[in-house]
Design goal:
280 residues, single chain, 11 helices, alpha/beta, globular, 25% strand, 4-stranded parallel sheet, 6-stranded mixed sheet
Amino acid sequence: MRTAIVTDSTAYITPEERARLNIHMIPLSVNISGQLFAEEVDITASEFYDKVRGAKEFPKTTQPPIGEFATLFEELAKDYDAVISIHLSSGISGTYQGAVQAGEMVEGIDVYTFDSEISCAVQGFYVLRAAEMAAQGFSAKEILATLADLKQYTRAYFIVDDLAHLQRGGRLSSAAALIGGLLQVKPVLHFVDKVIVPFEKIRTRKKALKRAEDLLAEDARKYQAMDAVVIHGNCQREAEEWLAQLASTYPNVNFTLSYFGPVIGTHLGEGSMGLGWTKK
């Protein structure tokens, strides 16, 4: 029984990795000054941040049309028995629900949708694990059981320079954004029940990053081996330096570097940083 793995662009898995593991990707889009760009297809992350800096209007994000999912699922039905479609949190986007609806429209293949309840490269942890298992011949139900189990070991925290982006895009309450702005704090944010909420309010960026590291350290002491990722919003040098420091401190953790692409970057803003991990 062959199982195909589908995800959306907000997992920010490189084209090389997608090709190697046979991962199929449906892009979300970003509207900048009336122009629509499919992320990871029409525009790179660095191009996005350059364009937004000069734009007069706040960019808007768009989930994929249901028809794109349906077309892909129908195509996959020619060669596969099942699809597992893994998406960013349903609490911040309708993408997951679009995949559910498309799966109900298509015949000849079993479509299983999985809500990662998170986004970016941490969503990618689920995608990569699923693709590796599919390549080894595990069934869709075995893969889904593993992904569900992985949720209890997966964490992500992120720090933004300006909460106004999240508030304007409707991903954070006005009250939380207002308090952050008034107090000039750098809150550590995370996902709870599929939505973004403040974890702790911290005065400086340096201390906020250290707090995220402290949370990683707690799990690094518990588990023999972990995968972790440092994620940045167009501040690669700072991210690389932080990654190097973390890698030297936690030898049992395999670190990679990723980025907040156009869609997530719209809501977090330039200069954002994230740290996510899961048990191997």
